[in-house]
Amino acid sequence: MGSHRRTAHPGPTGLDRNTRATVLTVAAASAAAALGAVPADATPQDRPADTKAEVDRLYEQAESATEAYNKADERAGRLRAELRAVQDQVARGQDRINRMRHALGMVAGAQYRSGGMDPSLALLFSSDPESYLDRAGTIDRISARQAGELTELQDAQRELAQKRAEARRTLAALLQSRKTVARHKRAVESKLSTARRLLNSMKADDRAAYERASRGGERPDLAGAGPASSSRAAAALAAAQSALGKPYIWGANGPSGFDCSGLMQWSYGQAGVGLPRTSQAQRYAGRQVPLSQARPGDLVAYGSDAHHIAIYAGNGQVIHAPYPGAPVRYDPVGMMPVSSVTRV
Asked: How far apart are CA 311 and CA 341, in angstroms?
C-alpha cells in the first residue's frame, strides 16, 4: 500500500502542542487496534481495496497459524498415543514384578518354616543320609533358581523405573504441546476475528462483491487436461471434486468441512493413501516435479513456508480450500507464488 499524506490543519486554540499530540496518539492507537493495521488515513468506507487487501493478508496469516496448529495438534495426538503405550508397559511391568515377588516370598516362607538348619547337621541327624543328599541337591537347585529369579526381579524393577521416567517425560511434552496448540488456536481466532470486523466495516455493496468473489466462479473447462499421474492420484482428484462447495473450517479434515491441508489429507485418504496432516509435511510426501510438468492429482504448495496447498486439476487449475467464508473451489494454479509441486 502506498503512503498518503493529508494537509495539516491548525488545531483548536485551547490545546497546547503536547496536548494535541497526546490526543492524536491515542486516537491513532485506537484506530489501529480497531482496523488491524489498516492505515490511519484510510477507513474501510473510503478505501475498500485497502480493506480487501488487509482481509486477504489476515486470512493468509490465519492459515499459517492454522498449519502451525495442525502440526502441534498432530504432535499432541502422537504423544497421547505414546503415553498410553508407555503406561500400558508400566502396568504390565508392575504386574510381572508383583508375580515375581509373590513367588519368591513363597519360597522364602517355606525355608523359614523348615527352620533353615545347617546342611551338615541335617546330614548328621538324618535317618536316611542318601535321601537327604537327594533333597539337598534339589534345595541347591532351588536356591540357584531363586537367585536367578531375584536377579530377574531386580532387572525388571530397573526397567520399570525407566518406563516410569519415560512416561513422565512424555506427559511433560504432551502438556507443553497442548499449550502450543492453544497458543496457535488463539492466534488463528484473533486473525479471523479481526478479518470479520474489517469485513463488517465495509459498505454493503463492497462486502457483497468481496463475498461473491470468495465463492468463486463456475467449473472451469478441464477438457484435454491429460491423465493423472497414477490411479491413486486420479481417485484423490475425484474426491477433491466431490468436496467442491464444502465450507472452509480451520483445523478440519472433512468430510463436512476442510482447511487446505485437511482437504488434501482427506482426498488422498479416499484413495487409500495416508498423507501427513500439515501442508509443510505434505509437500515432501512424494517426488517433486517442475510446475511445467504438473499432472492432475499432484499437490501444489504455495509460499516459501508452504503455508497453503492445493491439488492440481489440469489446464492450469487447482482445487483448494481457500479461507473462511470461501468454500472448496477451483482457482488458477498461479493464484499465489508456487513453491513446489509434489507427485504422490
From this structure: 9
Residue pair 83/174 in contact by the 8 Å Cβ criterion: yes
pTM given for the model: 0.59
Radius of gyration for the alpha carbons in the chain, expressed in angstroms and rounded = 35
89: exposed, middle or buried (Cβ count in 10 Å: 0-12, 13-18, 19+):
middle
Residues belonging to the active site: 260, 308, 320
Q: Tell me the fold of 226-343.
A: endopeptidase fold (from Nostoc punctiforme) (3.90.1720)
DSSP code per residue over 103-148: HHHHHHHHHHHTT---HHHHHHT-S-HHHHHHHHHHHHHHHHHHHH
Domain parsing of the chain, residue ranges: 68-201, 226-343
pLDDT in tens, 202-227: 888 888 887 777 776 678 888 888 99
d(CA 51, CA 57): 10
